[in-house]
């Protein structure tokens, strides 16, 4: 009976086994490899498959592109007038094994044609930058800030050094460099503050030509400075040559102090500064006299595009011009200081959002749920299956129901929720390329050759990624990491998870270095 059952089972399995047979060569026209040997069937051991690798391209590692100034160690920048422009590069990355989020990358300096002049010995190497009155305005200056961790014996400190980094400043052509005497460096609009001792305000003030102008502790007004004065320069990024100090102002270039006697003094922007006197906010010019009389307000914003926002009591606010005239009163006003055209969006008492142009002419209105502000300036309104974009000085009707997530120059990125996709497009609605769903436009730049590149970045900050596209939508680079434009050299800077590179706008690599991605011991 058992033999008969086995025979029946084999009869049922044979057709299935025969359908699993592997041909010794592919059928005509299949396009498969022409020399694919049949797998060997060993009695008693079941079916064994022999892998055919002939159809795969041979592995070729990415090639690094660089030269070295000399053989051997290059632990310091040796000042010279022969380098030409120097650029920071990333050479080695240490990922924190304790999962505290502290990763450390070491940097070096390389010439604009790809010759290393230092090894990756700096914990920081970056171009001096300060912030403008608007939250998205940044301005770079032609100096580099360098940082090094001092050597600490392994039994005395952490794997990354266990001590404060010491800082120096150098010329972008490497012709001079200061000693590493500073615990920190802060960039203002006219000068840099090089901190020796924050407890005593021992701070060298250097202009962007590399000249030390004075030291804070030596000023006649030193007793007027707050303890940790330099630590408050996050409030003095863009002061048009003046630091706000208590109720007065310090001239960045001369060190002269103007004691105005105000309760609080803010930064100069558009030639005016908000100050508080007797609990009321007004605006002064650079003669330190009122041009807009103090008024009852909870907040007085910086002037930008000739306008400032003043927060009144009861949740209302108003937009004023530089003569103090009220241009608009509403429950809330926003976006006027970040849009390239000076566009304004405000909410009425019913919660509806109104969009006005630079001349305060209404462009449109929508419920708050249908409206979104766009990084880079602009307002997107989605209603009745249509999308309207208010950007710069024009209104754009975009195809279908899409969400504009970013806009720069003549380019936008749109999400199409129904199709679960996103596209890089022109303002007239032409699709250039499909992008990652979370991508936004980081920058639109034009190089020395006149060619334009669009730099995208993922809005998912836990998994950063980048894409660099030509103006016609051709993808030049993409990957995990970041990309940006280096204005000093006119090159694209790519900080990939696997390598660091500089390239031109045609995608040609000028410098490339694979990253070791090491873990700390």
From TrEMBL:
<protein>
    <submittedName>
        <fullName>WG containing repeat-containing protein</fullName>
    </submittedName>
</protein>
<feature type="signal peptide">
    <location>
        <begin position="1"/>
        <end position="24"/>
    </location>
</feature>
<dbReference type="Pfam" id="PF14903">
    <property type="entry name" value="WG_beta_rep"/>
</dbReference>
<keyword id="KW-0732">Signal</keyword>
<dbReference type="InterPro" id="IPR032774">
    <property type="entry name" value="WG_beta_rep"/>
</dbReference>
């Amino acid at each position: 009976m058992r033999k008969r059952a086995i025979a029946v089972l084999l009869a049922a399995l044979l057709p299935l086994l025969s359908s699993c047979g592997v041909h010794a060569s592919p059928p005509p026209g299949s396009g498969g490899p022409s020399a694919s040997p049949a797998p060997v069937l060993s009695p008693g051991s079941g079916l064994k498959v022999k892998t055919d690798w002939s159809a795969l391209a041979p592995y070729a590692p990415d090639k690094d592109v660089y030269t070295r100034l000399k053989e051997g160690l290059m632990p310091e920048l040796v000042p010279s007038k022969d380098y030409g422009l120097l650029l920071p590069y990333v050479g080695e990355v240490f990922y924190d094994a304790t999962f505290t989020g502290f990763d450390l990358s070491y940097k070096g300096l390389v010439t604009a044609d790809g010759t290393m002049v230092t090894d990756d010995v700096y914990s920081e190497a970056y171009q001096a930058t300060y912030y403008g009155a608007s939250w998205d305005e940044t301005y770079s200056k032609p100096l580099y800030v360098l940082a090094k961790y001092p050597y600490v014996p392994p039994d005395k400190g952490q794997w990354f050094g266990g001590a404060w980094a010491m800082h120096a400043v150098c010329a972008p052509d490497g012709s001079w460099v200061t000693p590493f005497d500073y615990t920190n460096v802060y960039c203002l609009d006219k000068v840099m503050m090089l901190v020796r001792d924050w407890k005593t305000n021992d701070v060298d003030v250097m202009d962007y030509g590399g000249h030390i102008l004075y030291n804070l502790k030596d000023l006649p007004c030193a007793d007027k400075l707050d303890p940790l004065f330099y630590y408050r320069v996050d409030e003095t990024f863009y002061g048009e040559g003046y630091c706000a100090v208590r109720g007065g102002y310090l001239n960045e270039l001369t060190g002269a102090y103007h004691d105005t006697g105000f309760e609080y003094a803010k930064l100069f922007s558009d030639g005016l500064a908000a100050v508080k006197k007797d609990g009321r906010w007004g605006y002064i010019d650079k003669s330190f006299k009122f041009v807009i009389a103090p008024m009852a307000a909870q907040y007085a914003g910086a002037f930008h595009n000739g306008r400032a926002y003043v927060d009144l009591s009861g949740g209302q606010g108003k937009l004023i011009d530089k003569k103090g005239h009220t241009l608009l009163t509403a429950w809330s006003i926003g976006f006027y200081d970040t849009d390239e055209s000076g566009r304004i969006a405000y909410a009425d008492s019913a919660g509806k959002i109104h969009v006005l142009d630079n001349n305060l002419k209404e462009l449109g209105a929508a419920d708050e749920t249908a409206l979104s502000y766009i990084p880079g300036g602009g307002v997107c309104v989605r209603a009745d299956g249509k999308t309207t974009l208010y950007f710069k000085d024009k209104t754009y009707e975009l195809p279908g129901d899409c969400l504009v997530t970013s806009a720069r120059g003549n380019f936008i990125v749109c999400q199409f929720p129904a199709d679960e996709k996103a596209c890089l497009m022109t303002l007239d609605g032409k699709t250039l390329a499909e992008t990652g769903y979370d991508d936004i436009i980081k920058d639109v730049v034009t190089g020395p050759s006149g060619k334009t590149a669009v730099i995208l970045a993922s809005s998912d900050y836990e998994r950063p990624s980048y894409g660099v596209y030509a103006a016609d939508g051709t993808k030049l680079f993409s990957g995990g990491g970041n990309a940006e434009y280096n204005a000093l050299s006119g090159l694209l800077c790519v900080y990939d998870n696997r390598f660091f590179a500089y390239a031109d706008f045609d995608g040609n690599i000028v410098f490339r270095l694979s990253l070791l991605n090491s873990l700390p011991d």
